[in-house]
């Protein structure tokens, strides 16, 4: 069996048919494989601790973590943009208006326009988005392109990303708990800390290509 | 597997050279030990690691057992989501498909996400031959490409280079490929990364065609998954108008839920992180978000041959985490280049000879590039029994013959006959004892195997003769 070479010749046998035939011949004598056991843990964390764990793991991967409530959110967003020295901020189409209510007039708002070129986006300083979900055990934000998050590229090209997470509703403990809550066919970006590389002597450097600064606001509503 | 390192010497020759390079050994030792220790800590955080490992193994085994069914389901899902699926039996066909797709866009350059599959088929070289420039955008791959070098590790391909060497490569070569390195570039990792950021951003922002691989493909939904750290992957996957993904057929998993296993085990096994900074998932094309054209090239290139080997097929479970490289005492000393393939280390030693066959000198030597210590099996997140496959492949290499193996086979055949004929054996033993002063201390033959082994000293008298003389009566008494 080990050196079996299956060759199918004749008309109408393209690579698709040839590959499928080779696969079928290769496994014809293989034992049936059972359904995988899924006796691994659903979570490694107690429900009461998930928000703190999220904050801890985000910070461990060098995201800047802030906490506030619904009333304090607009002022916090305004302050973070001002401290950053942002002159322009990208706004996804469905971002809740109150989130930007306290942004100073000096910071120009730019609506995400599908016609804008990547080069134009490259001139923008900051972007503010929501998220679909956050995973505590891995310190991960999941973006799915919903109106408060926008196209994938707007959280990629600007160098400063502020992401708002509603706690505790949007926080799950673990990857297995996240999967059923994510729509797989959406365009998904999972973000765990800012862009990073360890390619040079394994020294971690933030931001080779993606945003170099990731700020996460955990907001209780 | 084409596009590999033609004319590479066999492993022992290449390894001998590498072992003499002190800088290389220093870089490798530092890197492998650092990642290995971090990985152990990351894995220890999950109390159910062994169960996740077993689940990963079972998911992959089930997928491989019904690979035809899952590939057809994947094809249907991707097509329904607006993608186009191509099937490539070998490297040449895959390269031709990609080149034709690029040409159809009218473009002459592509940006690339680091991909083992496209390295395996030598895509960059094939595109260059068609007048298409392929730019690697992963920092390490950029270092390798600018240095006209070869990758030496699956995860950190420029692990053999230190910061001083990288600075020189950037300073001397960047200008020829695009934006030059800034004047007075120092060798701090932050400054080097910044130089790469500026150099590559220029390419990302104008790119019309992106080429990637994928870590996983979900049959049920048609979703492709790329895990990465830098964001160059996100750039290549979302900014161009056309995206072409070249993916080995073994990368399919049946269901969305299966990802929950691998997204826990892959990052911890490879970069020793709880999760890699960026994971991109896309299903066909998405309205006004990302590429408008998506092509998936499903690559065989020796994988169905590997699947046909009942011991060796487990190598197709590999999720390319590189944990086995970092624990391997042989890799640590020999370095990645000695393996003569894009897949170095223990996994390369079993994967390359299966994908390419064992006819070439380098491929026939790879199953021996191991001490069989088993550390690779211990860390493998999908429980590939690499030592088992190595031994199995050694048998295959020995069976096919070759210089040393012909002599070995002749000796074994002769020994077998002697052992089957007790009278001959006894006579031979007596003759050997009488002539023992004349025996050489090493076995005859010119190979490395005989050089490294001493023959045992023969006793003055064969054991069976001694037994007959001293215990002969007992034997009669016992009636045996």
Provide a quick synopsis of the model.
Helix content of chain A is 20%, strand content 23%. With 221 residues, chain A is α/β, with parallel strands linked by helices. In chain B, the strands form two sheets. Chain B has a six-stranded parallel sheet, with helices on both faces. Chain B has a four-stranded mixed sheet with strand order 8-5-6-9.
Describe this structure as you would to a colleague.
The complex is a heterodimer of chains A (221) and B (480). Chain A has 221 residues and is of the alpha/beta class. Chain A has helices at residues 15-27, 50-60, 73-84, 118-121, 175-178; strands at 64-69, 88-91, 108-111, 126-129, 133-135, 140-143, 160-167, 171-172, 188-191, 196-197, 205-206, 213-220. Chain A has a single domain (48-220), classed as 3-Layer(aba) Sandwich (Rossmann fold), CATH 3.40.50.10420. The radius of gyration of chain A is 23 Å and the shape is globular. By secondary structure, chain B is α/β, with parallel strands linked by helices. Helices cover 53% and strands 10% of the residues of chain B. The mean pLDDT of chain B is 91. Chain B has two domains: 3-304, Rossmann fold, CATH 3.40.50; 409-477, no CATH class. At the A-B interface, helix 1, helix 5, strand 9 and strand 10 of A face helix 2, helix 3, helix 4, helix 8 and helix 10 of B.
């Amino acid at each position: 069996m080990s050196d079996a070479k299956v060759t199918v010749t004749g008309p109408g046998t393209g690579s698709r048919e040839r590959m499928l035939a080779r696969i079928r011949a290769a496994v014809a004598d293989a034992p049936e494989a059972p359904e995988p056991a899924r006796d691994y843990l659903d979570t490694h964390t107690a429900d009461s601790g998930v928000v703190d764990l999220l904050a801890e793991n985000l910070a461990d991967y060098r995201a800047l973590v802030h906490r506030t409530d619904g009333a304090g959110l607009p002022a916090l967003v305004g302050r973070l943009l001002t401290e950053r020295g942002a002159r322009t901020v990208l706004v996804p189409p469905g971002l809740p208006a109150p989130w930007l209510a306290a942004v100073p007039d000096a910071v120009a708002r730019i609506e995400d326009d599908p016609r804008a070129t990547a080069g134009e986006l490259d001139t923008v300083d900051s972007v503010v988005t929501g998220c679909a979900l956050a995973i505590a055990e891995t310190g991960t934000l999941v973006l799915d392109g919903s109106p408060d998050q926008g196209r994938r590229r707007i959280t990629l090209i600007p160098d400063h990303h502020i992401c708002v997470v509603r706690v505790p509703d949007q926080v799950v403990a673990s990857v297995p708990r996240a999967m059923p809550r994510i729509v797989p066919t959406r365009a998904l970006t999972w973000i765990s800390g800012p862009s990073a590389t360890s390619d040079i002597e394994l020294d971690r450097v933030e931001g080779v290509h993606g945003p170099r600064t990731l700020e996460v606001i955990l907001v209780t509503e | 597997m084409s596009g590999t390192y033609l004319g590479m010497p066999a492993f022992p020759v290449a390894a001998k050279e590498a072992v003499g390079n002190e800088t290389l050994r220093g870089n490798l030792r530092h890197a492998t030990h650092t990642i290995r220790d971090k990985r152990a800590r990351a894995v220890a955080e999950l109390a159910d690691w062994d169960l996740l490992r077993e689940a990963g193994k079972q998911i992959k085994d089930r997928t491989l057992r019904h690979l035809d069914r899952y590939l057809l389901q994947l094809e249907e899902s991707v097509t329904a989501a607006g993608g186009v699926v191509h099937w490539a039996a070998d490297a040449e066909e895959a390269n031709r498909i990609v080149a034709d797709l690029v040409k159809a866009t009218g473009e002459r350059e592509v940006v690339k996400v680091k991909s083992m599959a496209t390295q395996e088929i030598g895509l960059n070289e094939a595109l260059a031959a068609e007048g298409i420039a392929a730019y690697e955008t992963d920092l390490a791959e950029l270092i390798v490409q600018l240095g006209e070098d070869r990758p030496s590790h699956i995860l950190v391909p420029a692990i053999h280079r230190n910061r001083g060497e990288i600075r020189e490569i950037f300073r001397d070569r960047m200008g020829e490929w695009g934006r030059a390195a800034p004047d007075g570039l120092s060798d701090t990792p932050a400054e080097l990364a910044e130089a790469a950021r500026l150099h590559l951003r220029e390419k990302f922002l104008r790119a019309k065609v992106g080429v990637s691989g994928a870590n996983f493909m979900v049959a049920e939904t048609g979703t492709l998954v790329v895990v990465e750290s830098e964001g160059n992957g996100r750039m290549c996957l979302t900014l161009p108008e056309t995206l072409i993904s070249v993916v080995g057929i073994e990368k399919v998993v049946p269901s969305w839920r299966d990802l929950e296993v691998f997204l826990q085990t892959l990052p911890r096994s490879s970069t020793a992180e709880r999760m890699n900074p960026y994971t991109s998932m896309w299903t066909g094309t998405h309205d006004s978000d990302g590429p408008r054209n998506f092509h998936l090239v499903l690559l065989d290139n020796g994988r169905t041959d590997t699947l046909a080997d009942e011991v060796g097929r487990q190598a197709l479970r590999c999720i390319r985490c590189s944990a086995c490289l970092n624990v391997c005492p042989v890799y640590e000393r020999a370095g990645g280049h000695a393996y003569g393939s894009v897949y170095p280390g223990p996994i390369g030693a079993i994967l390359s000879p299966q994908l390419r066959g064992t006819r070439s000198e380098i491929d026939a030597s790879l199953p021996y590039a191991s001490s069989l210590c088993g550390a690779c099996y211990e860390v493998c997140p999908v429980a590939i029994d690499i030592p088992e496959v190595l031994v199995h492949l050694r048998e295959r290499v020995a069976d096919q013959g070759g210089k040393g193996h012909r002599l070995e086979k002749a000796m074994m055949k002769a020994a077998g006959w002697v052992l089957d004929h007790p009278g001959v054996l006894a006579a031979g033993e007596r003759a050997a004892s009488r002539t023992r002063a004349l025996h050489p201390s090493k076995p005859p033959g010119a190979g490395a195997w005989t050089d490294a082994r001493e023959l045992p000293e023969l006793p003055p008298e064969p054991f069976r003769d001694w037994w007959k003389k001293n215990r002969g009566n007992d034997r009669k008494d016992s009636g045996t």
